[in-house]
């Protein structure tokens, strides 16, 4: 259980040998979150954050033993929230990402090893963590392309 919690933390906010999600979105404005390179089929930072929120919320609901009813296909998840240049709306999205992380961590902390094994939750959690790391890397790449990634990182 300790290993899963550690990896959940390092992919979100505890820097290890790679930048976690929280550092990847730190200081980003709504305009930067909406930025897309010209002519590129790249998702925006906001779209990537939407995508991560969706899958973590779905996993949290499933781990709580509830049924997930907000089914979206993979592409629809990138549009989970409407992108605007409104800083308050962007802040809400960031807070939602933080809230679902705290919720997932709390649920995992209260889940027994037997429950993890019984419901194949360990594999689902590892998939979510790898998924977060992958999209965090994309967010950092977008920030580097737009020139907003701090040079000290």
Please describe what this structure looks like.
The chain has 153 residues and is mainly alpha-helical. The chain has seven helices and no strands. α4 (45-63) packs antiparallel against α7. The protein starts with a helix and ends in a 7-residue tail after the last helix.
The chain-level structural class is mainly alpha
Q: List low-confidence stretches.
A: none
Sketch the topology as an H/E string, one letter per element. HHHHHHH
What is the arithmetic mean of pLDDT?
93
Number of helices: 7
Compose a concise summary of this entry.
This protein has 153 residues and is an all-alpha fold. It has helices at residues 2-12, 21-25, 30-34, 45-63, 87-109, 113-118, 121-146.
Topology:
Blueprint: H1 2-12, H2 21-25, H3 30-34, H4 45-63, H5 87-109, H6 113-118, H7 121-146
List key phrases describing it.
0% strand; 153 residues; 7 helices; mainly alpha
């Amino acid at each position: 259980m300790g290993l899963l919690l550690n990896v959940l933390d390092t992919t979100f906010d505890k820097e290890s040998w790679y930048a976690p999600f929280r550092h990847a979105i730190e200081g980003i404005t709504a305009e930067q979150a909406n930025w897309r390179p010209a002519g590129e089929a790249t998702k925006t930072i906001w779209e990537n954050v939407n995508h991560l929120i969706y899958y973590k919320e779905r996993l949290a609901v499933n781990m709580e033993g509830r049924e997930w009813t907000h089914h979206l296909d993979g592409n629809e998840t990138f549009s989970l929230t409407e992108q605007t240049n409104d800083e308050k709306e962007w802040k809400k999205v960031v807070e939602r990402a933080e809230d679902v992380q705290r919720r997932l961590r709390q649920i995992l902390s209260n889940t027994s090893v037997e429950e993890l094994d019984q419901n194949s939750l360990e594999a689902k959690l590892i998939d979510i963590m790898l998924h977060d790391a992958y999209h965090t890397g994309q967010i950092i790449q977008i920030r580097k392309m737009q020139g907003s990634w701090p040079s000290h990182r």
